Amino acid sequence: MIPLRDNILSRRFPVVTVALIVLNALAFFHELSLGRRGLSDYLMVHGVVPALYTDTELRHAVLDIGGLRALVQPIFTSMFLHGGWTHVIGNLWILWIFGDNVEDRLGRFRYLLFYLASGVVAAVLHIVTHWNSELPTIGASGAIAGVMGAYFLLFPHARVQTLVILGFLVDIVTLPAVIFLGLWFLLQLFSGTLGLFSGTGAGGIAWWAHIGGFAFGALMIKLLVQRPPRRFGDWELLR
């Protein structure tokens, strides 16, 4: 399922969401400029490599060379790096659809902190569930999953126009946000659990980063904002 648009109107221009999209795009173009060998080395430094946090010898080696910054910095820089055109476009498109409304409700500064905190929690859960992995993990999807978790609770009755592809069957349907995001989360949970218990790994996708980000976003949004009464102007599209 690919979301195309939702029916919630923003009350003001989503400055932070647009800035995050631009920063991710610029970081991706920088990756493209590095070449294959340069990019590989770059991702080992700026991506999240679980073994660097869980293996005592590797952790001490990193601390000796780069200090605490060498372990903290990748948690944040990894959120702005992507593994290809599909990865970056897919993530930023979802951020554009759901991020503006969450930014509206949180306010710009709190939204930025919320986004970054979601990414941190997602990275930590990925480390915990991939204890000794030496593969760098990158992508904004953990932070964006936090935004999706917040949207799930803030706008459950919103509607999401969705492109559904089932083999040769292609259709556009409109789903309640609670259904679209609920199905998305269940897919992450099923795939992540299957990967853990089957020993096949994540299949190149950080399922547990998505799960952690979404759960954190859903839990934290209840502490950060209360839902105001629904207004007619919020629902005037896709009726």
Sheet of most strands = 3 strands, antiparallel
Shape: globular
Strand order of the largest sheet: 1-2-3
Amount of beta strand: 5-15%
Corresponding CATH superfamily: Rhomboid-like
CATH topology: Rhomboid-like fold
Number of strands: 3
Order of helices and strands: EHHHHHHHHEEHH
Low-confidence stretches: 231-239
- Give the rounded overall mean pLDDT: 89
Helix content: 55-70%
Global Rg: 18 Å
Quaternary structure: single chain
Provide a count of the helices.
Answer: 10
The CATH architecture can be named as: Up-down Bundle
Q: Which structural class matches the secondary elements? A: mainly alpha
Description:
The protein has a single domain (2-235), classed as Rhomboid-like fold, CATH 1.20.1540.10. 64% of the residues lie in helices and 9% in strands. It is built from 10 helices and 3 strands, in the order E-H-H-H-H-H-H-H-H-E-E-H-H. It has helices spanning 15-32, 35-46, 50-54, 56-66, 69-77, 85-106, 108-129, 141-154, 177-198, 207-224; strands at 2-6, 159-166, 169-176. Strand 2 and strand 3 form a beta hairpin. It is globular. Residues 231-239 have low confidence and may be disordered.
